[in-house]
Write a structure and sequence with these properties.
single chain; about 270 residues; alpha/beta; two-stranded parallel sheet; 11 helices; about 15% strand
Length: about 270
């Protein structure tokens, strides 16, 4: 027997989602939770089902709430969205950390408000025990031990840790960081910066090299633990705009859109 309370809640969520789709005139897809391997398979089915409608939409908005996860499904989901949609936008009502932040960088636009947060880019990879671990934390510790070894200040216990560390595992962490920076740079230039054609200060044309340099700067800063100190540190809209020079749309400035997003996300959260 269907619980009438659950059924009422589902109907309310569907109605609020439909209101948002009608207002945006776009498909709206919601992703809440860790980004895990095989998530792309489920996303593929969702998008193909939406695109099988009589009049499929060409614009998509992704409401994203995630603590992060694996980069491989992010990469493949971006391929799925870009195959079917000419415009892909991200809405972050709460938080999208790590791999979620990288995912947002593939969007044409990112919508946030004062409470929303992205995070430092610290991709998660499997260690020898099969557990997902934050790559940058390991890299920072290994680099710290290597520096101590070069200065002859390493302790015996630290030397044993360094000696027993799997070099192949270390390389996997390095590759995860390199992939994160590469994806951010590629997606920013191709999608986020596509309409950045002139400099705001003097109106001179923006070159491809300047776009690539700005994207690399953003990617490097986001993946620098020395700046953020913590894997889960929230990076708000003001820091993204002023320190990273990213154009972020504050959906709170649009009263009607803010109301629709808030009503839907509140219903979903409850």
């Amino acid at each position: 027997m269907v619980n009438p309370i659950d059924e009422t809640a589902r109907d309310l969520i569907k109605k609020k989602l439909q209101d948002l789709e009608n207002y945006l005139n776009a498909d709206v897809i919601v992703y809440c939770g860790e980004i895990f391997d095989s998530a792309e398979d489920q996303m593929k089915r969702v998008v193909e089902d939406l695109q099988s409608e009589a009049e499929p939409k060409t614009t998509c908005y992704i409401i994203l709430t995630t603590p992060g996860g694996s980069l491989n499904p992010v990469n493949r989901m971006v391929t799925i969205f870009r195959h079917f949609y000419s415009e892909v936008n991200f809405i972050v009502p709460n938080f999208a950390y790590s791999a979620g932040t990288i995912f947002c960088m593939s969007g044409d636009n990112i919508y946030m408000n004062y409470y929303s947060a992205l995070g430092p880019v610290d991709p998660q990879v499997q260690n020898r025990d099969g557990k997902l671990v934050a790559a940058l934390g390991y890299l920072d510790k290994i680099n710290d031990l290597l520096a101590k070894a070069q200065n002859n200040t390493i302790s015996q216990a630290e030397f044993l840790i360094l000696k027993d560390f799997d070099l192949a595992e270390l390389r996997a962490y390095e590759q995860a960081k390199e992939l994160a920076v590469d994806l951010i740079q590629k997606w920013l230039v191709k999608y986020k910066f596509k309409d950045w054609t002139t400099h705001s200060k003097d109106g001179t044309p923006v070159t491809l090299q300047e776009k690539e340099a700005r994207a690399f700067e953003i990617a490097t800063k986001l993946s620098d633990n020395n700046i953020w100190k913590s894997h889960g540190r929230p990076i708000g809209i003001q820091v993204l705009r002023e320190d990273l020079h990213l154009k972020i749309i504050d959906f709170e400035e649009n009263e009607e859109l803010n109301g629709i997003i808030s009503e839907y996300y509140d219903a979903l959260s409850e």
